[in-house]
Sequence to fold (155 residues):
Amino acid sequence: ISLGAAAGKVVFGWLSDQLGEKRAFGVTLCVQFVSLFGLGALSTYASLVVAGAFFGLGMGGIAPLQAALLARGFGGHDFSRVMGLIGPLMIPFQIVGPPLAGWIFDTQGSYDVAIWIFMGTTLAAAVSLSFLRLPQANAAAEAESSSATTERRKE
Fold:
């Protein structure tokens, strides 16, 4: 997973330049969804390693693409504030996920239900992403430039 995540940062950074941040983020979610399905459906060691590597690839793309989407949506002026505000929103999910998966394994004898839950949350993220409206790249740059000019005038 770690090697896949390291590669994912590079791969999805490049893909973002080719497709745009939103589409590249959608691809990361698709990669995660399919790899989660593989982790639940496959049984040989080699196939699970491959599914895990692809899951890591998708996970690796999340952080840089999330930052790129926030920068596009909110501009550089508000970027740090927005990053700071979404952190606490993500923490409960990050805290609950691993113990939930462990509890499911302990009570069910399998990670299948946990994998289905994680696939459902990934699907929910993809649906949410489809509603995301971003300013055009030129409009965002112009707004950022205008905002910076206004801030300099205030000083």
About this structure: The first helix runs from residue 2 to 19.
